[in-house]
Automatic annotation (TrEMBL):
Organism domain of life: Eukaryota
Keywords noted in UniProt: Hydrolase
A Pfam family this chain is assigned to: Lipase_GDSL
PANTHER family reported in the protein's UniProt record: ISOAMYL ACETATE-HYDROLYZING ESTERASE 1, ISOAMYL ACETATE-HYDROLYZING ESTERASE 1 HOMOLOG
UniProt name for this protein: Isoamyl acetate-hydrolyzing esterase
Gene3D superfamilies membership: SGNH hydrolase (3.40.50.1110)
Stated family: Belongs to the 'GDSL' lipolytic enzyme family.
InterPro entries named in the record: GDSL, Iah1-like, SGNH_hydro_sf
Lineage: Eukaryota, Viridiplantae, Streptophyta, Embryophyta, Tracheophyta
UniProt-recorded Gene Ontology molecular function terms: hydrolase activity, acting on ester bonds
Length: 237
């Protein structure tokens, strides 16, 4: 069985298998070495993720431990409590507790699995006003970059406290001039270029954890390894 890499998150994860998405890029990158398994749930926050986590991941007896799990929540938790996405809002302290519980569940289930937390991305408030999810009579964005930054900071704190890896996407994206439109399609979700940033960061973190094309064996013999004079000999395992 090929080893697995799980992607667990909200819509930014669910959409990651779209054309040019960071998940599909990962699947292509590891096409002969690992299966990239999508577990993205549009609109979910950490409260809901924690509620369903036992349904999302198989019990240990039903398969080996995955190589890694990315945990990418926070964009919905950070919805403002006085705007139209209030039903997705999770207070900052609870967000931190929920992330701790998610990491604890994964590490108890699979002690050897590498967990990578990804912070929410920055928010382009102008983009959110131009692309509201529902009618927005207040004329105010339901998310702000400042709020997303607070949740990103807590995500990094959890990673440090749990001793797991983290990707500071909120900071990384804002290092690029014009990030608002270059990386975000509607002020929240990723453009093709934004997806590439996530892909590159995940590959970098996996490599730091010893997971790369150089360290993972290919699944079954590569064509270059097959004896031209006796091809079937290559399949004598």
């Amino acid at each position: 069985m090929r080893p697995k890499i799980y992607l667990f998150g909200d819509s930014i994860t669910e959409h990651s298998f779209n054309d040019g998405g960071w998940g599909s890029s990962l699947a292509h990158h590891f096409s002969r070495t690992a299966d990239v398994v999508l577990r993205g749930y549009s609109g979910y926050n950490t409260r809901w993720a924690l509620k369903v986590i036992e349904k999302v991941f198989p019990p240990p007896e039903r398969g080996g431990a995955p190589l890694a799990v990315t945990v990418f929540f926070g964009a919905n938790d950070a919805s403002l409590p006085d705007r139209y996405s209030v039903f997705q809002h999770v207070p900052l302290d609870e967000y931190k507790q929920n992330l701790h519980a998610i990491v604890a569940f994964l590490k108890k289930q699979w002690p050897s699995t590498h967990v990578i937390l990804i912070t929410p991305p920055p928010i382009d408030e102008d983009g959110r006003l131009q692309h509201p999810f529902v009618e927005n009579p207040s004329g105010l964005p339901e998310r702000t970059n400042e709020a997303a930054g607070s949740y990103a900071k807590q995500c990094l704190n959890v990673a440090a406290e749990c001793g797991v890896s983290a990707i500071d996407l909120w900071t990384k994206m804002q290092q690029f001039p014009g990030w608002q439109k270059a990386y975000l399609s509607d002020g929240l979700h990723l453009t093709r270029n934004g997806n590439m940033v996530v892909f590159e960061q995940v590959i970098h973190k996996l490599r730091e954890e010893g997971i790369s094309l150089e360290t993972l064996p290919a699944d079954l013999p590569l064509i270059a390894e097959i004896d031209r004079n006796d091809p079937l000999k290559s399949f004598d395992f």
